Amino acid sequence: MPARYGGFETAVEEIGRRLAEAGHEVTVYCRGERHPEREYLGMRLVHLPAVKKKVAETLSHTGLSVLHAAGRRITRRGPDVALVFNAANAPLLPVLRTLRIPVATHVDGLEWKRTKWSGSGRRYYRTAESLAVRWSDALIADARGIQDYYTERFGADSVFIAYGAPILARPDIGKLAEAGYAPGEYHLVVARFEPENHVHLAVEGYRRSGAVKPLVVVGSAPYADAYTTQVKELAGDDPRIRFLGGVWDQDLLDALYAGALTYLHGHSVGGTNPSLLRAMGAGACVVAYDVNFNREVLGEEAGRFFGDVESLAYQVEAAEADPGAAADRGEAARKRAAEHYVWDDVAKEYEKLCEDLAARRRTRRTVRPKK
């Protein structure tokens, strides 16, 4: 906190601040850069270290967080309910259960499909999914496709709670001018540089297109040097393709979404993707990778889809040929986000879930596979 990178950060900030406003005591375990105060938007922040290795960073930080929460529980100041984000943390759930802390696990997407994980990492994530089913009092799925996966693979029930979308009525377009861009005069990619986010496909498809307006690529990845090199090799010396790296100025990022002629969204293995919702809330014309998660969020009218280099190139050229139609799709996306992805509604669903957990109306019996 404050959230700058990743869907979980944004979700915790948006949900946590609303729970705090409703009168609940909210503690958030943080890693990385410290906020100067111990409280932020009504939430109590606890910063703990983590091992700076890809395979250990998440689990090491969560382990310390669980021990901290356990210590508070022993002194009768601990949590009534724990919300754990990422099924990879499932091996630590028995500690919470031993202390009789009800726990809901947000299982996220199909992490084992990410190419950054080797055979052992992939096996770990598959195992962690089954442990989350076994030891959670509730599973949270942010997409119907994820909910279906847990039903089909484990026979497990889950609670569907989507993310919210920030609706940008007046983005600071002046930020675009400072960065050297004008509304409607560029295409945009915002993604971590990971193969399953298909940044390589966006870059290659754009390069093969006859597009005149530049492609602006925002993003990086701390553990993906080889993939980053591959993406930049695909761009070659094409002067139309511009890599900005990570953009931490949130006003500038909002302006980039709002001013793009198209937003090219290649994410394929997550659930409801926050970057997609942010683009929709900004009124961007979305061209998304054709998987069930993205179709679920966009519907049939609020976006266009691609599956290969040729179809992406076609969509980019079509948007430049008819920018009015692209703008209309952007408005349809904004309307859909405002109707279906509302943070106030999301927070109320989390509040109800926490109340049910604290009152023991939800227990492992409501999650575990039926015999």
TrEMBL record:
It comes from the Bacteria. Keywords: Glycosyltransferase, Transferase. InterPro entries: Glyco_trans_1 (IPR001296), Glyco_trans_4-like_N (IPR028098). It holds the Pfam family Glyco_trans_4_4. One of its GO terms (molecular function) is glycosyltransferase activity. Residues 186-336 form the Glycosyl transferase family domain. The keyword Signal does not apply. Residues 6-157 form the Glycosyltransferase subfamily 4-like N-terminal domain. Signal peptide: none annotated. This is Glycosyltransferase involved in cell wall biosynthesis. It comes from Actinomadura viridis.
